[in-house]
Amino acid sequence: MLIAVRTAASALFEEQSSRLQLRLSGFDFRSRWFGVGRSLICFAELTVVLITPSKALLTPVLTISDGARCGGVRAASAYCLVGGTSHAEHARWILVAVLLVAAIGYRPRWTAIPQLWAVYSIAVSITVPDGGESVGMIMSLLMLPIALTDNRTWQWNPPTEPLSPSGHAVAYAAFWAVRLQLAYIYLDTAISKFGVADWANGTAEYYFLRDNMFGVAKPWAGPLLALSKYPLVVIGMTWGALVVELLIALCILGSDRWRKVGLVLDILLHGSIILLMGLWSFALVMIGSSAVASMPLLRLSPAAAPDEQQPVEKGGNASSVDHSAAVLR
Question: Is residue 303 predicted with pLDDT exceeding 60?
Fold first, then answer.
C-alpha cells in the first residue's frame, strides 16, 4: 500500500513538473502584449509631467508643504536629486526624456530601471498623487525582472534568439506577480466599496456624476444627468461598476481566453471613465497593466529552440492551443 502511494505521488510530481517545464519553455513575453502594456504605463506617466506644470504638481495642500517631498527614501526622486523645488523644471524635463524613451520601446533592458526611477519620482514627490501613480510604480517594479531579460533593440521587434531557461523562469514568475497584484487591486477596490453606504445602496454614481471636480463632462452631461434621476438606471450604473471590477479580477486569474475577456472589460470600464469623467493617466495605467497581465501563456516563440516548440500539454492536441496571440505579435 505504502509503495503504491509513493509511486502515485512520484508520478503526480513528475507530471506536474513536466507541465511546469512545458509552460516555462512555451512562455515568451517578447510580444506586443508586453510592449503595448509597458508603453501605455510610460505614456500615462509622461502625460502627468508633460502636460501639468511643475508648480501645479508640487503645490501645497492641507498639511503638505510647498515643493517636492524629499524626506527619507523620497530623496532618491528626480525632484530631490536636482536640487529641490527651485530646480523642479529641470527634473520635469529629465523625467519627460526618460519616460519618452521608455514609451517608444527602445532598449527595454536598459530603460527599465530608469523607467522605474521616473515613475517612482512622480509617485513619491508630487503633492497629490492619484491611484494611477501608485499602480504605475508597483507595476513598473513587478515588470522590471521581465524587461531585464529582454535584450532586443526595440520591444516591437520579434525576438531573434531564444530566452535562457533562467530567463523563462524569471519572466514567468514576474508575469504571475503582475496578475496577482492586479487581481488584488480590483478585488480590494470592489469589495471595499460595499462598506460605503452610497455604493452599497446603489446611489454613488448619482453623486459622482454631479461632483464639481470629477463630474460628467460635456457632451454627455445632459443625457446622463437626466437618466441618473431614475433609480433603476443609477443603481445599475453603480452596482454594474462593482460587478465589472469583480469580473476583471477573476478573469485576470483565468486562462488565456478569460484574460482577454478581462482586458476587454478593463478597456470598457476605464474607457467609459475617460469619456465621462476624465482621469486619463489613471485609466491608461490600468489598461496597460491589464494588457501585460493578458499575455498568452501558451504560444510558439519564433526564436525558441526546436525542442522548445511544444506548446501543447501532455494529453492535448494542436487544435487546443490558443493562437489568437498572433493579433498582437
Answer: no
Q: Is the peptide bond before 219 cis (omega within 30 degrees of 0)?
A: yes
Which residue carries 474607457 as its cell? 271
Amino acid at 149: T
Per-residue pLDDT tens digits for 80-137? 898 777 788 899 999 999 999 999 999 999 999 999 999 999 999 888 777 789 999 9
Contact 273, 279 (CB under 8 A): yes
* Predicted structure pTM score: 0.83
Q: Give the residue from 259, 45, 231 showing the smallest Cα distance to 137.
A: 45
User: Which cell goes with 305?
Assistant: 529552440
166-218: pLDDT as tens digits: 888 888 899 999 999 999 999 999 999 989 999 999 999 999 888 887 788 77
- C-alpha pair distances (Å), 83 with each of 72, 112, 119: 15, 24, 18
